[in-house]
From TrEMBL, chains A, B:
Keyword line: Carboxypeptidase, Endoplasmic reticulum, Glycoprotein, Golgi apparatus, Hydrolase, Lysosome, Metal-binding, Metalloprotease, Protease, Secreted, Signal, Zinc, Zymogen
Organism of provenance: Rubricoccus marinus
Localization per record: Endoplasmic reticulum; Golgi apparatus; Lysosome; Secreted
Extent of the signal sequence: 1-17
Any one Gene Ontology molecular-function term assigned to this protein's record: carboxypeptidase activity
Name this protein carries in UniProt: Carboxypeptidase Q
Listed InterPro entries: CPQ (IPR039866), Peptidase_M28 (IPR007484)
Domain of life (superkingdom): Bacteria
Main location: endoplasmic reticulum
Domain Peptidase M28: residue ranges: 307-515
GO BP term, example: proteolysis
Length: 537, 537
């Protein structure tokens, strides 16, 4: 009785559809892995980007030459490549010469000068050889009355004592199981949290600092110094110069130092250890003079900037595309190695590997595979947003909803981005798109790298996949080991070739190529999240 | 039968003398610890040495002013202090201005210049503003024929690609129990091993490098660059310039760059990441020009150099002395914080604490306590050797046996030195003197710091206690946590205040004061090792 009742229950149970196994291509994976490691060239691409062409600031001639090199290198593999303009950026700029030192003078101190490790903030104007009295202003001093400031001709250090790590903890990390499990178990709540980058308190503090900076900027100082905020890493982090309010606005409606006609003061980030010394000297009542020798050149006033777009054409589904990319521009003080020669070299290497594979197979991919090296990313994803606006869905500004949907929009299966440093791929951020989980899981299983198995529903932000995700096209970043990205290299003068990890770069290239190949070959395009509302809806 | 036989055995056992308990002074220890922490000033001493007076290269005016400050500060506590000359050193020197950058030029590369993080080697002559073509010479290339070198007017990078740590391991360490146990269990064999600093292979390699350097030095280059050898730490290590052979010799019979009349080429240590970039650029066939702007001043030709000697006079045993010290001079590129403002500030703080204690007690120490801030240490322990030669036993050169023994020799109970960075005291190197073990054990027990309990028979070298040990006077260094001393700060431009650990500095000052006090108050002077043979015996 009991048994037959149980049998009846079984029979009555709803029929659960067995998921159709996601096809994977073990031949391709084996080829790709061998090509990436045994015949890998990813570090050679990185050498040319970083050591030879150097920093690739948007608008600069160095970026132009590096882009030409990249186009040539794609073509040398038989991969078609072009420069495709995305719009007018602003002014070109480069630093030609930079030295800074401090002199302590006092009746009881020997006349001596010590060099300060510093980097100009981008688009800072020249000072030439000039000297100014040091004035220290605590940027967090709420009692500071901007009206009483007298900084004319002085060198103003805006900041307070910074923490300096003494090295008992490693600067670089690989993700451990605890962290990976947390990501694997993340719910959608975490994806929303990931988009919010600053707490209200932090934001309020930043705004107060900006207000005090405005007071100093308009006081005609010789130069403004700020502590780098990277104490103990040996690195100096420097992005763009701040500008006085009320000047001409450029693209995006912002007054930026790259906007033609905008004037500002020379600004420098200073190694925390050295900024701390200046602050302590002031506290000890010592008079300090800062000697500067700084020259920069503004080149074209209105640069038309390009992305590099390369392509392996598809076959039976050639109208549909999968895109792989990373931004090629960098900040100016290092050579843009982990941010983002890493992603650019991996993108190029994925192209080289896939071209070799399709040549060996004697048949191209089903869908077209594009390789994009964006520019203007550091100033607000300009290159990728321009590309998406032109081809898929126009968006007026960063993070704003699209105003229209173009016919090409439906044809993009996915965009894969790399821009979190050199660290090994440990999995994929699904960017709130739960429907891709079984597909990505099958691809990760087939790729068979025990270090890269984690899928997280969580989002990651701050880079070019957002330009796609923002208009409803599946855009993804891989989950990477952080290494010393935020601790040391991100936007710093230490972002140089030797902080790239060759093994991790090869693994990333292989996995990027595998994901592109599977996306190009699968029966359907990747499932999408709900389309965002158009602007005005 | 058996039992009574056993009892007989017991009775027959030799009588073992119970060791006389080593007296300790808990009142003093409590006072010292409170003074060191609750009213501690050690970091203020360090601020003045490093931030205000800065680098204290032997022979420099900066060192003179810093010594005057130290004398004044000792006196401000009621501790007598004097400058005591130890001999004629050589030339004074300081770097006034230093900037270095590299320009890559080629038909396909944008005209751009990137700064190189570098530091002059001490006593390098000025180059002014000058440019030279980069030539890379692999210093370990055994096929290099010096006769074929053409380096006239060029900037020669002598070196090969350096390893750059990517930060997955911490730069700084505290000693763990494994390491401490190994030191605790060390036998005398280890003490001999500790004296031998280089393997024959390493020595041979250094000699081959030196020979190739000679070939370049005599080829009239504009400048010579060498990789710093500190890759990944962010630091540049720079000591003195190499000199061409066959020139005038100075004190110690060596031709040194500080010897009056010696001429050499400007030499610079370069951050490994930047040297690697230059090497890879050369390998990639790129032409590179190095732009230099470097000015230095040679001051006096023959500096008479001093030690700072301070003293708290003894009472009933005032003729006998205990000495506490560290070297006050530094290299030039940082501000000599861990090497050795640390030891100097701890020495001064020990003086301040002990003066406060004896004042509170109303009675001075039994033995005289001296506080010595040596100079010329970095060039070969000149200051401490000069002092020992003058007062205790003349020695003609570094590590050479004494030629005589002066009456004062018998009066020194012990010398305690600190010169291994800022790291916490974990115990004491007994310097092969087994007889001090029960004494130091009692003092460590009484100091009651669970982190500082290890006694090792092992030796440590390379600093001023050797000047005493070498003539048979007990000379000791404390066993310290290394922190990032050799990894980052030692002799580098990153040897600055923020890499000092305040807690460790306070603990060291308290322990140094305690050891000095117990040595000054105990019934007997410390036991000695066998007296070394005099020269010629």
């Amino acid at each position: 009785m009991r048994l037959s009742a149980f049998a009846a229950l079984l029979l009555a149970a709803p029929v659960v559809a067995q998921p159709v196994a996601e096809p994977t291509d073990s031949t391709a994976i084996a080829f790709i892995k061998a090509e990436a490691t045994e015949r890998g060239q990813v570090m050679d691409h990185a050498t040319w980007m970083t050591d030879v062409h150097g920093a690739r600031l948007t608008g600069s001639e160095a970026l132009d030459r590096a882009q030409e090199w990249a186009v040539d290198r794609f073509r040398s593999w038989g991969v078609s490549a072009e420069l495709e303009p995305w719009g007018t950026f602003g002014r070109g700029w480069k630093s030609d010469r930079m030295a800074m030192s401090a002199r302590v003078s006092g009746p009881d101190v020997a006349s001596q000068s010590f060099p300060l490790t510093a980097a100009p903030k981008a688009w800072s104007p020249s000072t030439g050889r000039a000297s100014g009295e040091l004035v220290v202003i605590d940027i967090d001093d709420d009692t500071l009355d901007p009206a009483t400031l007298d900084v004319r001709g002085k060198v103003v250090l805006m900041g307070s004592l910074s923490d300096v790590a003494r090295g008992l903890e490693p600067l670089a990390q690989r993700r451990d199981e605890h962290e990976l499990l947390e990501l694997a178990n993340a719910g959608l709540a975490m994806t929303r949290g990931a988009q919010r980058r600053y707490s209200p308190e932090v934001l309020a503090r930043y705004r107060a600092r900006a207000a005090r900076t405005q007071a100093v900027l308009t006081g005609e100082p010789l130069a403004i110094l700020t502590p780098s905020g990277t104490g103990g890493s040996g690195a100096v982090r420097a992005m763009q110069a701040a500008v006085p309010e009320g000047q001409a606005t450029g693209a995006g409606g912002r007054a930026a130092p790259w906007t033609a006609g905008v004037e500002t003061v020379a600004q420098f980030a200073v190694l925390d250890e050295h900024a701390n010394r200046l602050i302590r000297l002031a506290e000890a009542g010592q008079s300090v003079t800062i000697d500067l020798d700084y020259a920069a050149t503004f080149t074209d006033e209105e640069v038309v900037e390009d992305n590099v777009i390369a392509e392996i054409p598809g076959t039976d589904l050639a109208d549909e595309i999968v895109i792989v990319g990373g931004h090629f521009d960098s900040w100016h003080s290092g050579s843009g190695a982990t941010d983002n020669a890493a992603g650019s070299a991996v993108t190029m290497e994925a192209a080289r590997i896939l071209k070799a594979f399709y040549d060996a197979r004697g048949e191209g991919p089903r869908r077209t595979i594009r390789f994009a090296l964006w520019t203007g990313e550091e100033q607000g994803l300009w290159g990728s947003r321009g590309y998406v606006s032109e081809h898929f869905a126009p968006t007026p500004g960063y993070g704003e909803p699209p105003t229209d949907v173009l016919p090409g929009h439906a044809n993009v299966s996915a965009y894969y981005n790399m821009d979190n440093g050199s660290g090994r791929f440990r999995g994929v951020y699904m960017q709130s798109n739960e429907a891709v989980r079984p597909i990505f899981r099958a691809w990760l299983d087939a790729f068979d790298d025990s270090t890269a198995q984690t899928l997280t529903i969580s989002n990651t932000g701050g880079t070019d996949h957002l330009s796609f995700d923002n208009v409803g096209i599946p855009g993804f970043q891989f989950l990477q080991d952080p290494l010393a990205y935020f601790a040391k290299t991100w936007h710093t003068h230490m972002d140089v070739y030797d902080h790239l990890d060759p093994d991790d770069m090869e693994q990333a290239a292989a996995m990027m190529a595998t994901f592109a190949h599977h996306t190009a070959e699968r029966a359907e395009k990747l499932p999408r999240k709900a389309m965002p509302d158009l602007a005005g809806n």
